[in-house]
Amino acid sequence: MTTDNIAEVFSENLLTERHASQATREIYSREIACFFSYLSKRNLDYLTIDTAGIKEYLIFNSNERKLGPATNSRVITAVRLFYDFLNREGIRKDDPTELIGKVRKPRTVPVTVSAKGVDDFLNAIDTSDAIGLRDRALFELIYSCGLRVSECCGIKMTDYYNRERRITVTGKGDKQRMVPVGDYAAEALDRYISCARNELLGKKKSRYMFISMQGRAVTRQEVWVRLKYYAQLSGLELKVHTLRHSFATQLLKNGADLRSVQEFLGHSDIRTTEIYTHVNTDDLLNAFRKFHPDGKK
């Protein structure tokens, strides 16, 4: 079986056996393609490479590809899943990744923006045309509901209950959650649906909520381009998850309990949600340093 064929079967296995999302499949498939390229240039074979060879690959990623700990951890996960797949399929009996330790990812504090910053970002969107109405609704919804970009792109028309102001969100592992939609987001959504969506569709049909200029569902890449554009207009530095992080941080600042925020965000492990408490701790520390006599020493 060629590397192209085995990579394709591996990708399908991620879907059927592990129920991985399309985004996860793309990421892991891309990493396995890089792994195969590395092996090919050194006349190595994925069927015979040993643990030492895997370690050399990880060193190559750090030194040549300049990958940080977080990305290298993703590489290890992809390669480990690949060899687990080979074991289960009987293609290879041993696992060269078995003795490879996990890369400890640094616990970074999420990048957030203030409520005023979010307003500045949203107000930078020109809603005089269909694209602007779509973008305003899309980013209002991401902030109002704390959505991942991939979740927002995957929302279908049947997921939105406008009377109840609720929306069904499909997250990682195809897990669904129902989240409330804020008044501003609901207003922007209703305006987009009634005034812009059909214009973007033209003669095409789509079950997805947010439509591109080509009449199909918007992609994560398209959302990233639009976010970067509006961030520049508003003088802000935003990343893809900044609005989601800001949503969670604002909830905690205003008294929401951690378990509720976990449910909103669709985190399977509350330890993932706990990172947002560090943002509030930093705010308290900054306030102490600024206003308390002892903090100025």
Topology:
Elements: H1 3-16, H2 22-41, H3 51-63, H4 69-88, H5 115-123, H6 130-145, H7 149-153, E1 160-161, E2 166-170, E3 176-180, H8 183-195, H9 197-201, H10 220-234, H11 242-253, H12 258-265, H13 270-273, H14 275-291
Antiparallel strand pairs: 1-2, 2-3
Tell me about this structure:
The chain is mainly α and 297 residues long. The chain has two domains: 3-88, DNA polymerase, domain 1 (Orthogonal Bundle), CATH 1.10.150; 116-237, hpI Integrase, Chain A (Orthogonal Bundle), CATH 1.10.443.10. Helix content is 58%, strand content 4%. It has a three-stranded antiparallel β-sheet with strand order 1-2-3, with no helix packed on it. Mean pLDDT is 84; it is low at 291-297.
Summarize the model shown.
By secondary structure, the chain is mostly helical. It has helices at 3-16, 22-41, 51-63, 69-88, 115-123, 130-145, 149-153, 183-195, 197-201, 220-234, 242-253, 258-265, 270-273, 275-291; strands at residues 160-161, 166-170, 176-180.
